[in-house]
Amino acid sequence: MRVATPTIRLELQSRPESLTLVRAMLAGLAIPLALEPELLGDVKTAVSEACNNVVIHAYPDQPGPLRIDLALEHDGVEVVVRDHGGGIGHTPPAEGRMSVGLALIRTLAERAEFRDAPDGGTEVRMTFARQDSVAPPPPIAPAGSVGPEPQLDGDVVVTLYPVTLLSGLLGRVARAAAAGARFSVDRLSDLHLVTDAIAAYAETAAASGELSFAIRAVDRRLELTVGPFGAGTGARLESDAATDPALAPLVLLADELVSEPVESGEMLGVLVVDPRPVSGQ
Amino acid sequence: MHTAARVDSNQLFVRWQKHGDQRAREELVTRYLALARKLARRYTGAREPLADLMQVASLGLVKAVDRFDPERGTGFSSYAVPTIVGELKRYFRDLGWSVHVPRGAQELALKVEEAQQELTARSGRPPTINELAEFMELSVEDVLDALETAAAHHSVSLDAPRTDDEGDSTSLAEMFGEEDERYELVDDTLTIESAMRFLSARERRVITLRFVEDLTQSQIAEEVGVSQMQVSRILRGALERLRELTRPRRQSEPRRALSG
């Protein structure tokens, strides 16, 4: 059923700090999707507004689920921001605080639709046009057979297609999460090497064209789950690292590396801790 | 409250646009200044201070007040927002912003690097991103972006392969030979030994210190006499080249020339 269009889904909680992760995700797409800086700026601003709207209005009392779906079309980018809150009817777009955000979205997006989702909540659907229509869409590998998606759990869960998008996304989102978990720049740089290694490995070892990752980061401790990879990946990692220097950071710099079989292959669990002694903070 | 204000605004628009009442115009601008500020704040970043953008947004607001037609039945805000945003975007375009972003980003990357060294010297440990952001009065996102630039900058060309002669003939085995107790790791790494020879002595040293001796990047920085960010770049550049050197063999492609 999958169409060969690059797609990304981001699931997180509507906490104010989630916005950093969303913006990091968008920044990570700029290069693989060849987005012009101005288009990227518009998408970032409009999507931030839509997310802010969710944080403030959909779940005023406590965080709730927030989902962002992004699809690259030939002539532009479509982004849908969804929540499961009270629906847009509860916050009439008037001259108040919220209208600035909605007006900004209408201004920046080529098309913008606000509506109550059938299952409750609100859906903001935005389409952004490419100015530079000559830029060809990135080459897409044929979709492999996609098994049932593994259920992942974390502060942020990202599902993407094709795997080549991982190199831009994983590192950016992981670093933003690590920054929030008070990683030092030192260990953040290690994490950079680790995520680069995973992204490089995924291009050859992923079980299919689609890949998911989940990140949970708190108190200088970042847990990453990524996959599915082909069966036996975890067992092969050490020996693969002996011939592939790109893998060395993953094997040598991560604090823990585990693999867990799932229906569609194997998920890789990576733990990176910043052991910096507590001082000052 | 809002309803009352809107009625007043409509009267003010009539007084200004039909009767040329300057005070009504001023009152309208004052009344909607908060809207302009909100929009300006959304475009504030490391490069453009809020004060400058406020001026630009205010100009857009004045234009909107002058051109708005209350009889069309839409609220003033929904007319003013595109006008103000248009003004802000034109301002960035006129600055040639997108053209000059790389330079601005590199300057910022250098500043972050300096700030990092200063904070490390102060507290004796590498700072967190939040500490850097606070110190530099930037957002966490700006600091992350600057680090991104710093990491990409010169990642390959910083250490040219084989140009510095010192220790050029040092083999990986000889280098590792100095650290006896971690010897078991050598087996894992030996298969890339031939590729390691193409790295500079400094790259080999940094790689060994990080992956074999398990020093932190900051400790390596001190040991080698460079900044932590340089260590980060050396590591990335060296790994990238090692990868390039070993990849053609595995994928039976023609071996590519070394990129400097």
Structure described in brief:
The complex is a heterodimer of chains A (281) and B (260). Chain A has helices at residues 18-29, 37-58, 97-108, 166-180, 185-205, 233-243, 248-253; strands at 7-13, 65-72, 76-83, 111-116, 122-129, 156-161, 211-218, 221-229, 256-262, 265-273. Chain A is an alpha+beta fold and 281 residues long.
Describe, in plain words, how this protein is organized in 3D.
Chain A is of the alpha+beta class and 281 residues long. Chain A has 2 domains: 7-129, 2-Layer Sandwich (Heat Shock Protein 90); 182-273, Histidine kinase-like ATPase, C-terminal domain (Heat Shock Protein 90, 2-Layer Sandwich), CATH 3.30.565. Chain A is built from 7 helices and 10 strands. Chain A has helices spanning 18-29, 37-58, 97-108, 166-180, 185-205, 233-243, 248-253, and strands spanning 7-13, 65-72, 76-83, 111-116, 122-129, 156-161, 211-218, 221-229, 256-262, 265-273. In chain A, a hairpin with a 3-residue loop joins strand 2 (65-72) and strand 3. The radius of gyration of chain A is 19 Å and the shape is globular. Residues 92-97 and 141-147 of chain A have low confidence and may be disordered. Chain B has 3 domains: 2-95, Four Helix Bundle (Hemerythrin (Met), subunit A) (Up-down Bundle); 98-152, Arc Repressor Mutant, subunit A (Orthogonal Bundle), CATH 1.10.10.10; 172-250, Winged helix-like DNA-binding domain superfamily/Winged helix DNA-binding domain (Arc Repressor Mutant, subunit A), CATH 1.10.10. Helices cover 71% and strands 0% of the residues of chain B. Chain B is mainly alpha-helical and 260 residues long. Chains A and B meet through helix 1, helix 2, helix 3, helix 4 and helix 5 of A and helix 1, helix 2, helix 4, helix 5 and helix 6 of B.
Essential attributes:
heterodimer; A: 281 residues; alpha+beta; Heat Shock Protein 90; 2 domains; ten-stranded antiparallel sheet; 7 helices; 10 strands; 27% strand; globular; B: 260 residues; mainly alpha; Four Helix Bundle (Hemerythrin (Met), subunit A); Arc Repressor Mutant, subunit A; 3 domains; 13 helices; disordered C terminus
